[in-house]
């Protein structure tokens, strides 16, 4: 078996596991908090923020779930694209229009996910402090160096992939020219 095919299979398996774990933990954290606590205590796994949602109102739980489910949806969509990309790599289709397009989509989703994670934290700080008395509610906005580095990295990667796509299109046009 080709070495790249093995890597592609491993990445696909990890992607499926991450999708499953993230969906289960996000859902159980907001909608089944006692199940989430049991999972966390038994395994130590956590992908969501550590809020004790047991005392939250139904509206807070649903709002928090929707906000965090959107982040999970972005992650799942990105990983589905990675799985598709690995299928192309298993077929030894390395530099095709489809792989470049998938890489651009993955980069774009990663950039959106990075920006949304900052927004998500801010929205969740409001939702989780709603049960506090007036004056004790908070809005927390955190934008760190790692966020800036990730945004810059994904923007640069998107630019490089756009250049690759343009080069591929020019090469393809040249092959058709007599």
Structure write-up:
With 178 residues, this protein is mainly α. The chain has one domain. It has helices at residues 3-31, 33-43, 58-90, 97-128, 145-176. α3 (58-90) packs antiparallel against α4.
Average pLDDT, to the nearest integer?
86
> Could you say how many structural domains there are in total?
1
Spatial extent as radius of gyration? 21 Å
Find the structural class using helix and strand composition: mainly alpha
Shape annotation? elongated
- Please give the alpha-carbon distance between the first and last residues: 39 Å
What is the gist of this entry?
The protein has 178 residues and is mainly α.
Sequence-ordered SSE layout with sheet pairings:
Elements: H1 3-31, H2 33-43, H3 58-90, H4 97-128, H5 145-176
Helix pairs in contact: 1-2, 1-3, 3-4, 4-5
Keywords:
single chain; 178 residues; mainly alpha; 5 helices; 77% helix; elongated
